Amino acid sequence: MPPTSRSSPVRPAPAPAGAPAADPAGEPAGDPSREPTDAALIAASRTDPERFAALFRRHAPAIMRYTVRRLGQDPADDIVAETFLVAFRRRGAYDAARPDARPWLYGIATNLIRRHRRAEVRALRALARGGADPVTEPFTDAVEDRVHAGARSQALAGAIAALPAAQREVLLLVTWAELTYDEVAEALGVPSGTVRSRMNRIRRKLRDALGDAADPHREAHDG
């Protein structure tokens, strides 16, 4: 007597040749439009901790570039590792209504960077004296471009080093991390109006130091 359907569970049909493999959530790999949000990955990692690795792969490179630019390579390695360790430990409290975890992650990284404020100011002052930006320098090929970019970087680095720490954090989260004002507010745990007022003061200070061409504000970030 042939087995009944109840005793013979149906197995899913194999994917056609050349089709992308499904990830553990059942979503095809390689299709960005169907990739899980950060919030979904964090939620899944509460019961399957290995899912958190996808969040690391997604955001660690950008946070590394941001941290290297602020502090240099050596402290950045430790800070990025600790950022994701802290995030992993706090994942149970993550607000699932926020699909993008970048502000949360940059907020953690910023708190860790605060321990190295003196090192950051030293690095900026060294750049102002004629050093190379550790992020942009390797990707600037033309000699003439390097000269002009280096001069601008030196002048700007000196002006940034002179900013109060709270203003410097806002400026660099907007310009280097490319967060919107609202995202910076979320990262720092302050009202959006505070971010806007700080940016207004920053623009005035940089204009006084460098002229109108130094305006770091870009409308695309005002969201």
Automatic annotation (TrEMBL):
UniProt KW keywords: Sigma factor, Transcription, Transcription regulation
Biased composition range(s): Low complexity: 18-31
Pfam families cross-referenced by the UniProt entry: Sigma70_r2, Sigma70_r4_2
Magnesium is among the record's keywords: no
Acyltransferase among keywords: no
Transmembrane intervals: none
GO molecular function annotations of the record: DNA binding; sigma factor activity
Region (Disordered): 1-36
Residues covered by the RNA polymerase sigma factor 70 region 4 type domain: 154-206
Residue span, RNA polymerase sigma-70 region domain: 55-121
GO annotation terms (biological process): DNA-templated transcription initiation
Similarity comment: Belongs to the sigma-70 factor family. ECF subfamily.
Name this protein carries in UniProt: RNA polymerase sigma factor
Native source species: Actinomadura montaniterrae
Taxonomic placement: Bacteria, Bacillati, Actinomycetota, Actinomycetes, Streptosporangiales
